[in-house]
Amino acid sequence: MKSIFYLLLFLPLGVFGHSPQISTFALVRDSKGQWTAHLSASLEAFESALGNKKVSSAEAFQKELIQQVKSAIKIKSGVLQAVTLNDGQCHLGHQTDLKFTLMDLPTEVSTISVENDFFKELNSHFMVFKVINGATESNQFVLQSSNHFSAQVNIQPTGITVDSEQSFNYYYLLFLAPILLLLLLKYPMKKTINVLNLAMLFFSCSTDDSAVTPAASSAEVPAVYKKIYGATSVTSDGKYITIKTKGLPDHKSAYYATTNSLYQAYSGTTFGGLTFAKNPNTIIEQSGTFKIPLKPVMSTNHAATPLGAIGIALNGVPFFNQYAGPNNQELKGEMAGFDQFYGHPQNSGVYHYHVEPLQLTTVKSTKSGLMGFLLDGFPVYGPQEESGSAVTNANLDVYHGHSHETVDYPNGFYHYHFTTEAPYLNGNGFYGTPGTVTQ
Fold first, then answer.
1. CA-wise closest residue to 245 among 307, 290, 294, 308
2. Which domain holds residue 265?
């Protein structure tokens, strides 16, 4: 029996050559709304990361450690807004802990980017990361050199997700724990066994969860997406929301064929006070499929929005950006062609909105209500806040959005707004990573 125990324990050492180290890193929001960052590891790991520098005293070591860890942690909220860490606290011991107060991270925040490369010089170092937002916790994720010790955190009503390449795998710990327990009971003087490090040897065997856990073929559609009443279907595979639509507006328009019950001649004014001048196009039924991220997160490259559909309204009509075709021309030349609900079709019959969709802001909802979603999965709201105040470009970032709570996202979430001034809906690109659209 003894030989079997040793075989199971030390065979991985022959395969992997050495034992990786592990640390834990967490972002925590307390009941008062204050965010803090916590880093914990063995004293030996911290000493190794500092290059085993000789210091004159424990106080000097603490000071050096706090300074180096503080410079290694980079946290940003919203659109690349850097968060300041205070001077920090350090508790030295066999298990050493550091804590930093995040001075300007908002109490309610929807996206956070995190990087902590303090242990980057240590071979095979794993950092287990999690987020605790009041009573809500994320799953634990492994940050390591392969993902540059970084992650994107998305906080929304349905939970907290962390966009990371690796997930901490507990099955190997469950397998290893009984063996380690028996060894410790049988050989109590073996004080040098590092349980976590040995367990992580097994973790090294499998870091791709997708290899053993197939993606779900279907999943429950969150209530907010069920508000897309104009879709022919709304489904979820657990990763993306797929929306199918015919793209037909549910309101009167001068662009419907005269035989259609929704045709209505129009000769009044339109967006910007312009006199309506009908373009030669006619609304044609489409077969559109929009595939958007179920749990959107901030992108690092912010792709430019293309000509054509960049999102979908609740009534199934596509959103277009602030330009006219074919070469990103100013939209002003087309505005007179917006019908009485501020939409129009292009030359292939795709009806769409560039600006505030009056059917949604004045008939189906209000000017502060949910209008739809862009392809990156982030929601679009009308030209007013729920308080009734008008939203202007000065209230928004360069992507034409901002983060705060709404009736649909009471914990706060990034969202776009329509405004009466250019760019009307979207600015310098998608805030998140866009999905796909086919028409």
1. 290
2. 215-439
Residues 399 and 381 in one domain: yes
Q: Is residue 40 within a helix (H) or strand (E), and if so which, with residue range?
A: strand 35-42
Q: Which of the four pLDDT bands, split at 50, 70 and 90, describes residue 218?
A: low
Closest CA to 307 of 344, 354, 342: 354
Report the C-alpha gap between 286 and 346 in whole angstroms: 12
How many whole angstroms from its chain centre is CA 343?
Answer: 30
Task: Compute the radius of gyration of the chain from its Cα atoms.
Answer: 27
- Beta-bridge mates of residue 139: none
Same domain, 183 and 307: no
What is the average pLDDT value for the chain, to the nearest integer? 81
Domain boundary among 179, 195, 211: 211
Residue 351: which pLDDT band, with cuts at 50, 70 and 90?
Answer: very high
In the chain, the N- to C-terminal Cα span, in Å, equals 65
Model pLDDT, residue 187: 52
The span from the CA of 223 to the CA of 235, in Å, is 12
In angstroms, the CA 255 to CA 344 distance is: 7
The region of weakest confidence among 6-10, 51-55, 341-345, 369-373 is: 6-10
245 and 262 share one domain: yes
pTM of the model: 0.54
Answer yes or no: do 196 and 260 share one domain: no
Task: State whether 70 and 171 are in the same domain.
Answer: yes
